[in-house]
Write a structure and sequence with these properties.
By secondary structure, the protein is an alpha+beta fold. It contains 5 helices and 9 strands; from the N terminus they run αββαβββαβαβαββ.
Length: about 240
Amino acid sequence: MKLATITTALALTLSGAVQASPLPDFPFINVTGAAKLEVAPDKARIQFVIRQTADKADAATEAVYKQGRDLMQFLAKQGITEADIDAAQINKEALFKDYNDRAITGYEASQPIMVTLNQLTNYVAVMDYLFKQPQIFSISGSFDSSQREQYEQQLSEKAGADARRRANSLAAAQGVKISSVFAISEASGWGAMAGDFGFGGGSVSYGVMRKADMAESSSSNLIVPKHIQLEKSVNVIYKLKP
């Protein structure tokens, strides 16, 4: 009898959990506010890979070392310090004759490197140097602003104001008014609203500021964009006045 009682209670608990709605139990409206801002970049990040091949592993590795030393000398002349250079560990792989024949024909050594430029006056010179080096590949550049934090704050305020304007407009169209803010998220979209706002056992999720610039789609060019576009969106749930 005791076991049957516990089983029945558990079944009722599970049934209630399944039937419970993941949405608020009060009238609400959800909107997404967005803001964009064009700013002049003053920083850049350049990423690339040094890749060398040789018959022996030590020869390929030494070739990467030499290429790296030459690179460091050039960057030093451009006023770029070691603090602005981030290099990953050297990776070594064997080269095989083909997919079926696994006989080793040589070795490849590679090293990913990222260089941060705190001023753009030497961007073109650095990119030009990298493009002319036969053993440097996968070159890409992106731009940023040293005032990012200030711009993020501006965008947050503008996106929030846009969300409230949209909410007021939608509510007025239905003859109601918005009340207080119930939840805010920077997550993109409402596809998983229940999870974003903690309904149904989920947790609040926070997105990040998205950055788009003219060079992301064609980062291999040698042109410094006049502006980069910063974007931010915010999702808000407002309670409606009864």
